């Protein structure tokens, strides 16, 4: 009794799913219909792994058939990559940026860096295997916005707020191709700051002591003051 509604539901799902999700891995669905072929496994492809060979090339090189995620059309510019972790090395004034490939054919990537003075600096082109790049020459205590751009023959991926002052707003920066990065002040600056604070504290305690003894001199110990006055005579 239960079998027929389940079967109907399954049939409905298998016919609906590919149409409802055009970007879903299409190759995965074909396997369910054709039971005679051996079940194919996903290719050893990670879109966030650095120096990752494109999945289509893995497929061509692989002796056994494997499956790739579906991609957008090569006739369209790529979707924006997703920027992940940004690790700042303050002492060396550099940052390492990680990203994940979009589900689109990509020919190359580059980074854009805004330092708050208008136009962004454009990094060198990085081939399609790259998922990591280094930003150099960052100023200690500086705040920057970094974006990763993907390009193919049809154009380049969208950068939020490009052309103006750079991307802004927390919603734009979360899970997008951009991220804000702050370089902490260098250790030398911290040492200077510590020396400054130390000096200020020392001056403060000196003036407190002077103030304290002046007050004592005036109101606190009249006898000693009198004695000293007598001695001087
Ligand atoms: C991409 O760049 C890396 C590092 O420079 C290099 O090892 C690799 O051969 C390049 N791949 C292609 C397809 O050009």
Automatic annotation (TrEMBL):
Please list which residues make up the signal peptide. 1-22
Query: By its UniProt entry, which PROSITE patterns does this protein fall under?
Result: FN3 (PS50853)
Q: Which residues cross the membrane?
A: 190-214
Q: Which UniProt keywords apply?
A: Membrane, Signal, Transmembrane, Transmembrane helix
- Which Pfam families does the record match to this protein? fn3
- Which positions fall inside the Fibronectin type-III domain? 77-171
The record's section on SUPFAM superfamilies has: Fibronectin type III
Q: State the source organism's domain of life.
A: Eukaryota
What CDD domains is this protein classified in?
FN3
Return the protein name. Answer: LRRN4 C-terminal-like protein
